[in-house]
Design a protein that fits this description.
- The longest helix is centred in the first third of the chain and has 18 residues.
- The chain is globular, with a radius of gyration of 20 Å.
- It has 2 domains: 111 residues, Serine Threonine Protein Phosphatase 5, Tetratricopeptide repeat (Alpha Horseshoe), CATH 1.25.40.10; 84 residues, Tetratricopeptide repeat domain (Serine Threonine Protein Phosphatase 5, Tetratricopeptide repeat).
- The protein has a two-stranded antiparallel sheet.
- Helix 8 packs antiparallel against helix 9.
- The protein has 14 helices and 2 strands.
- It is mainly α.
Length: 264
């Protein structure tokens, strides 16, 4: 989900550097929201560098992405989205302290940015602070400007599962499904929950939506494998295992499969 979160960073870039608004020239009047035409040349350069960083991050080239973020912040040291991106990169590198510092810096610069709130919530969830994470997902969902509510709802569902709160988790996943019925992480988790209560019809329905997707992340494939195992469909399970082995041979998920750890 981190990659998906990163790809939405640029949606609000015009309003997250050095404050979120530009003065309309009237003393005491309301301030207008900043748009691209209000950006300085340095800020435009920073955004171009961030776009490159997001692209490299999506390809798994973390060191190159990190260098692009460094250049982005060199042009605009107050660019909140760049700090958020750097936090995600450090998170994937296992640099937990640096990830936390950068994401908190991003939040201080842009406290109303829902994408940054979602990113920080995901960081907390990934690092054993699931209870804290829910507040940040809710912060993102409360924002009228948030364009990706399905992501925060799915993240909240995943973190609720980590807290063994299946009731809240299913509620979050079902709400996410209403916003985006094609999200594979949402659907595979709904399939898993249906399979767990032997609701084969719904499990098959959600897995059907998952397998329509061309490219699936390792976590989605791994949950899908466990779903098909619960449904006793060895052919479907083998197909997913083949994808996991071919695309993510060095992943933690494939290592779990090799160890036969299906109940974690």
């Amino acid at each position: 989900m981190a990659i998906a979160a990163a790809l939405t960073l640029l949606a609000g870039c015009a309003t997250t550097s050095g404050g979120n608004s530009a003065n309309n020239g009237e003393s005491g009047a309301r301030r207008e929201l900043a748009t691209n035409s209000d950006l300085t040349d340095a800020q435009r350069r920073a955004r171009i560098r961030l776009e490159l960083a997001v692209g490299y991050y999506g390809q798994g080239q973390l060191t190159v992405a990190l260098d692009e973020v460094k250049q982005s912040l060199s042009s605009d040291p107050q660019f909140a989205d760049a700090y958020s991106m750097r936090g995600l990169i450090y998170m994937d590198m296992g640099e937990t302290g640096l990830a936390d510092d950068n994401l908190q810096k991003a939040l201080k610069l842009a406290p109303d940015n829902p994408d940054i709130a979602n990113n920080y919530g995901w960081f907390l969830c990934k690092n054993g602070r699931e209870k804290e994470s829910i507040a940040y997902f809710q912060m993102a969902l409360n924002s009228r400007s948030y364009l990706s509510p399905a992501k925060a709802l799915t993240n909240a569902g995943v973190c609720s599962l980590k807290m063994k709160d299946s009731v809240s988790a299913e509620r979050y996943f079902l709400q996410a499904f209403q916003f985006d019925a094609s999200n594979p992480l949402t659907n595979v988790n709904l399939a898993m929950m249906a399979a767990g209560r032997r609701d084969v019809e719904h499990a098959r329905f959600y897995m059907g939506l998952v397998t329509k997707q061309d490219a699936l992340n390792a976590d989605v494939l791994w949950i899908g494998i466990k779903v098909e195992r619960k449904l006793n469909d060895r052919v479907a399970e083998t197909n997913l295992v083949t994808q996991l082995r071919r695309v993510y041979p060095g992943s933690a998920e494939y290592a779990s499969y090799q160890r036969g750890v299906f109940d974690e």
